[in-house]
Design goal:
With about 325 residues, the protein is mainly α. The protein contains 15 helices and two strands.
Length: about 325
């Protein structure tokens, strides 16, 4: 029996070694394909094609309005005539709010709407990954499935809840918000963006938190650390790449959002995206201002992206492999 067991062990070891070798070979071949000269050329071509419309919009933002309406942006290189009037008129634009006020509104909306869902999702991800409770798997599936619900379906129910509150079986669950209050209007858009972001945030951060080696979590428990200490001293530092990666996505989504902001943050609380729709005029006859306003609006997202880009790839790959 010992000889048979030894033979089985040796066979299993050889099979595992062969499987590991095959996996490493497949990974090596994949890396060679992705790093081949043809892959590099293809990536450069795609990047150039993707950049051409943005470059054309940039050139348009510096052209006089008369030239914009009579010729394409590429003719600027044969008959170059550039001006800063589009940017000056955009900065001096004043309808309901000014450009500066809309920038401040966008920051006031975007920063909390990025921090809130990440905070809640990280705690939920830790619970799903390392705390055993009844129905955990079904609850995680339910949270993940909420991603398929279009946010447009929730706008009217949310607006009704914010206005009238929520009452179930005669018990008031949510008292409602004062729509005429400045603070409550920002609260509405914060809550809405947080609700819409939570399913994806929980899923992405759960992949990162669950990839933490079990030995690390168990060692913390042996040392007497509770869930709070484990969360703040181990899970939070090790999850920073994933947090930064999702923060980039969420910041860009909220900053570029128009629909939710139009519904829940109108008037003097409107963000930069709402101002961009006003720049072009009622019939779109001033869209040359829109081209300048667009590049003013992307300054902050570019700063955020380049500041956190070193975490971006690591965050996306967090949890992709274990072991």
């Amino acid at each position: 029996m010992s000889t048979s067991a030894s033979t089985s062990t040796i066979a299993g070891t050889r099979t595992g070694a062969a499987t590991g070798s095959a996996n490493r070979g497949a990974l090596r071949r994949t890396k060679l394909r992705l790093s081949s000269p043809w892959a590099t050329v293809g990536a450069i071509v795609i990047a150039v094609i993707w950049t051409i419309p943005s470059f054309g919009l940039l050139v348009t933002s510096f052209r006089p309005p008369a030239d914009i309406t009579t010729s394409g942006w590429w003719t600027a290189f044969t008959n170059p005539q550039f001006t800063l009037d589009n940017y000056i008129n955009t900065l001096n634009f004043n309808d309901t709010i000014t450009v500066g006020q809309s920038f401040v509104n966008s920051l006031v909306i975007t920063i909390p709407a990025t921090v809130f869902p990440i905070t809640l999702a990280l705690m939920a991800a830790y619970a799903f990954a390392w705390i055993d409770f009844k129905g955990k798997d079904w609850l995680f599936i339910a949270v993940f499935a909420m991603q398929v619900v279009p946010l447009q379906m929730a706008l009217v129910p949310l607006l009704s809840m914010y206005s009238n509150g929520l009452t179930l079986f005669g018990v008031q669950i949510f008292p409602g918000l004062n729509l005429n209050s400045l603070t409550s209007t920002y609260a509405e858009v914060w809550i809405s963006h947080t609700i819409f972001a939570l399913p994806l945030a929980v899923f992405i951060l759960h992949n990162s938190v669950s990839a933490i080696p079990r030995d690390v979590i168990e060692a913390a428990k042996v040392d007497g650390a509770g869930h709070g200490q484990t969360f703040f001293r181990i899970v939070l530092p090790l999850s920073m790449p994933a947090i930064a990666s999702f923060a980039i996505f969420q910041f860009l989504w909220v900053w570029n959002d128009l629909l939710v902001a139009t519904v829940f943050a109108p008037g003097a609380n409107a963000p930069i995206t709402k101002l961009l729709t006003d720049l072009s005029g009622t019939y779109g006859q001033q869209w040359y201002l829109l081209s300048a306003g667009t590049f003013l609006a992307i300054i902050v997202p570019l700063i955020v992206f380049f500041a956190l880009q070193r975490f971006f790839v690591r965050g996306l790959l967090a949890g992709a492999t274990k072991g």
